[in-house]
Amino acid sequence: MLSSLCLRILKTLGWSLHIELPETGKYVLIVAPHTSNWDFPLGILAGKALKLEPRWMGKHTIFRWPFGWFFRALGGIPVQRDRALNTIQQMADLLVQSEKMVLALAPEGTRVKKNYWKTGFYHIAVAAEVPIAMAYLDYPRKRVGLGGTFYPCGDVDQDFARI
């Protein structure tokens, strides 16, 4: 029911889904570009419409009262970016231990336009031995897309050229 409602909301807003789901239930999902505050609600709506139930990482400050419960209920995992807490390995372990899990991340790590992507998502996928799926939000055409899933080979330059 929630899936149908989210799909109906997306369609009412004029958005369409162009999806090629991975064959596995565990993967790292990168979503780019991440340049708008609207990325989050659109991503949540698309994830719910597709019944993905994605987990996602966000800076710990958004998980404070009074909205912390809400973001956790939507799959949020608080991260303290200013401390070295072995986050990559923690997320990889979470994927390994889970029977089914989609970890959605913005490779830019911020909404500010960057000329490069952070590599944390890549190292999580390599450590967990799960594929990377790529997604996009195309605002001019109002399209949410997902596809292009592949297993990283461990050579970051080669895999980033593929991405």
Q: Tags for this entry?
A:
163 residues; 7-stranded mixed β-sheet; 34% helix; alpha/beta; globular
Strand content: 15-25%
State the helicity in percent bands.
Answer: 25-40%
Total count of strands: 7
First and last CA, distance: 34 Å
Largest sheet: 7 strands, mixed
Number of helices: 6
How large, in whole angstroms, is the Cα Rg?
15 Å
The SSE order reads HEEHEHEHEHEEH
Strand order of the largest sheet: 1-7-6-2-5-3-4
The best one-word shape is globular
Summed over residues and divided by their number, the pLDDT gives a mean of 92
Poorly predicted parts: none
Indicate the structural class: alpha/beta
Structure characterization notes:
- The protein is α/β, with parallel strands linked by helices.
- Helix content is 34%, strand content 25%.
- The protein contains 6 helices and 7 strands, in the order H-E-E-H-E-H-E-H-E-H-E-E-H.
- The chain has helices at residues 2-12, 39-49, 68-73, 87-97, 120-128, 156-162, and strands at residues 16-19, 26-32, 55-59, 76-79, 101-105, 132-138, 143-150.
- Strands 1-7-6-2-5-3-4 form a 7-stranded mixed β-sheet, with helices on both faces.
- Helix 3 (68-73) links the parallel strand 3 (55-59) and strand 4 (76-79).
- Helix 1 crosses helix 2 (39-49) and helix 4 packs across helix 5.
